[in-house]
Write a structure and sequence with these properties.
Elements: E1 2-6, H1 10-21, E2 25-29, E3 41-42, E4 51-52, H2 63-71, E5 86-89, E6 92-95, H3 99-104, H4 112-126, H5 138-145, H6 148-163, H7 172-180
Helix pairs in contact: 5-6
Amino acid sequence: MKIAIIGAGYGGMSAAWDLQKVGHDVTIFESANYVGGLASGFKEPHWDWSVEKFYHHWFQSDDSMLGIIRELGLEEKVIFPRPLTVMYHMQKWYPFDSIINALLFPGLGWGLNKIRFGLVGLFLRLTKNWRALEKVTAHEWMMKYAGRQVYEQMWQPLLVGKFGPFYKDVNMAWMWARIHA
């Protein structure tokens, strides 16, 4: 069977790959002069690796993506460097990549705020019931359970940076998914 696919992003390319493997004649149509869609990148001649054109990335837990990469024999081309995570507070950068560094971070003060921050993180990491989180926004949930100071220092900047003026509309299940990525 002849099949036309519009778009050479991840969805179009992976559909074409699967259809071709079972014997279909596949043609992909792409309006851009490159493939990859939102996951495409660019590389300057003096750079060691490429950078995505759009804010898009894969996680080490993306089994579907990594499965196709393995099928294509490209796993040696994919790297997952350990990210440098820091928090900016009172005109100073603080490392924030371990439990110890989170506890030492002065932006939450001491006592209840740090306990709430830890308990919220633990709950989100351990809970499997993300569907219950679809019924509430991240703004409402975090204000209630993390508290105002923890929310405004830790979680609100993440939401504002990602969603701009719509940050109060983001579903809490989205936040749960970020913790599980």
